[in-house]
């Protein structure tokens, strides 16, 4: 059964608050990116690959692959949880193509779990629409209330 208008408004406020939380994270001063949570269980992060994130051979370093896929899958899963911050407990990645420059989208999706442990997957899509990496993570409900985090501003 679809949610009523009040539930949709509450969900949208939660998504905007999670986007705000992402935006204020100090790590994102190093990695310029923006997140969008359009619906429950789906998050997209848009970012640009440039020389600042390259390894010695000129392609993007694996840290940016991990960071963006972990964040996308994490926020896709945390979109289902309105009271607690989730924590990454594991993340597995498969690199399929080097990223050398341009716009990239990290798309994260919730796969399973709704109580204590959540499973999410993510993939990186380059400017040509090709997949450059994919990953799967597990995320656990923490004791940290979202409402206690300075960047989380619901409503």
Automatic annotation (TrEMBL):
- InterPro entries tied to this protein: HotDog_dom_sf (IPR029069), PAAI_dom (IPR003736), Thioestr_dom (IPR006683)
| Keyword Hydrolase recorded | yes
GO MF assignments: acyl-CoA hydrolase activity
Ranges of residues in domain Thioesterase = 58-132
User: CDD domains from the xrefs?
Assistant: PaaI_thioesterase
Specify the domain of life of the species encoding this protein: Bacteria
Extract the Pfam families matched here. Answer: 4HBT
For this protein, the record's NCBIfam families field holds: unchar_dom_1 (TIGR00369)
Q: What protein am I looking at? A: Uncharacterized domain 1-containing protein
């Amino acid at each position: 059964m679809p949610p009523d208008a009040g539930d949709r408004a509450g969900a949208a406020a939660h998504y905007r608050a999670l986007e705000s939380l992402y935006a204020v994270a100090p790590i994102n001063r190093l990695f310029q990116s923006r997140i969008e949570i359009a619906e429950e269980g789906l998050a997209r992060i848009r970012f640009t690959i440039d020389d600042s994130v390259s390894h010695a051979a000129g392609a993007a370093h694996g840290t940016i692959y991990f960071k963006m896929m972990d964040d996308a899958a994490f926020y896709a899963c945390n979109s289902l949880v309105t009271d607690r911050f989730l924590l990454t407990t594991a993340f597995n990645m498969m690199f399929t193509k080097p990223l050398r420059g341009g716009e990239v989208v990290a798309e994260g999706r919730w796969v399973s779990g709704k109580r204590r442990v959540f499973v999410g997957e993510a993939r990186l899509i380059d400017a040509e629409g090709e997949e450059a990496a994919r990953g799967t993570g597990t995320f656990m409900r923490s004791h940290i209330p979202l409402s206690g985090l300075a960047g989380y501003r619901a409503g």
